[in-house]
Amino acid sequence: MPETFFGWVVYLLQQYGSVLLKGAVVTLLLAVVGTFIGCIIGLIVGVIQTIPLEDNDSKVKRTLVRCLQRLLDAYVEVFRGTPMIVQAMVVYYGAMSLFDIDMSPLFAGFLVVSINTGAYMAETVRGGIESVDPGQKEAAIAIGMDHIQTMRCVILPQALRNVMPQLGNNLIINIKDTSVLNVISVTELYFASKSAAGVYYKYFEIFFITCVIYFIMTFTASRLLRWLESKMDGPKDYQLVTYDPMMDPCGDIPLPTKKPKGRY
């Protein structure tokens, strides 16, 4: 048996490396899929929460929209105001007790991460929509766009860029918070680490390895999302086109991309 700390680390990696790797894959799968579905939920909820009500709208429409918005407000407050570990217990065991639904722990994990992320993303999307300059909406209405066209073509593209940092933050949080799903026996990274640590009672060594794995996953996700943000921003050295077709009916003259060599 090893006698040093790093000796135990190497030994545990040799013995349980595949188990920890499978747990890390489950953790990433839960985080990525749950964040993706949660973003869709948050986008729908955020858009509904920002539906404007005009004075000339019918009473039926105003009543339905307000009731739907109040229900969605309750959903957001409940899932933002309770811990994910409690939500996992309520969803998994509550579905079995109240509705006789025997769902698998992994499916319950996907469900909990998705609806929890959706509650946070709903407020993020709502804030992103409200952060867009009101003049953008007024200009869209002035050229004849309805609310759906305005949201799809003008407001949401700008709002989604504004919420990208928070989306990445939610993904990183979900990578770490999936560890609470071990209470319903989801075999993610923390569950696998706890099982391996109980064999030799080397908790410090095995959770040191776990810590490193979590850091690698979150750091990689953070860098990938920053790269995606930079791609969404577009090039920084773009050149404004000064061509006006009304001034020059003969056609556009391409601008030189490189400075010509030699003297004039």
TrEMBL record:
<dbReference type="Pfam" id="PF00528">
    <property type="entry name" value="BPD_transp_1"/>
</dbReference>
<dbReference type="GO" id="GO:0006865">
    <property type="term" value="P:amino acid transport"/>
</dbReference>
<dbReference type="InterPro" id="IPR035906">
    <property type="entry name" value="MetI-like_sf"/>
</dbReference>
<feature type="transmembrane region" description="Helical">
    <location>
        <begin position="203"/>
        <end position="225"/>
    </location>
</feature>
<keyword id="KW-1133">Transmembrane helix</keyword>
<dbReference type="InterPro" id="IPR010065">
    <property type="entry name" value="AA_ABC_transptr_permease_3TM"/>
</dbReference>
<dbReference type="InterPro" id="IPR000515">
    <property type="entry name" value="MetI-like"/>
</dbReference>
<keyword id="KW-0813">Transport</keyword>
<keyword id="KW-0029">Amino-acid transport</keyword>
<keyword id="KW-1003">Cell membrane</keyword>
<dbReference type="InterPro" id="IPR043429">
    <property type="entry name" value="ArtM/GltK/GlnP/TcyL/YhdX-like"/>
</dbReference>
<keyword id="KW-0812">Transmembrane</keyword>
<protein>
    <submittedName>
        <fullName>ABC transporter, permease protein</fullName>
    </submittedName>
</protein>
<comment type="similarity">
    <text>Belongs to the binding-protein-dependent transport system permease family. HisMQ subfamily.</text>
</comment>
<keyword id="KW-0472">Membrane</keyword>
<feature type="domain" description="ABC transmembrane type-1">
    <location>
        <begin position="24"/>
        <end position="225"/>
    </location>
</feature>
<dbReference type="GO" id="GO:0022857">
    <property type="term" value="F:transmembrane transporter activity"/>
</dbReference>
<feature type="transmembrane region" description="Helical">
    <location>
        <begin position="20"/>
        <end position="53"/>
    </location>
</feature>
<dbReference type="GO" id="GO:0043190">
    <property type="term" value="C:ATP-binding cassette (ABC) transporter complex"/>
</dbReference>
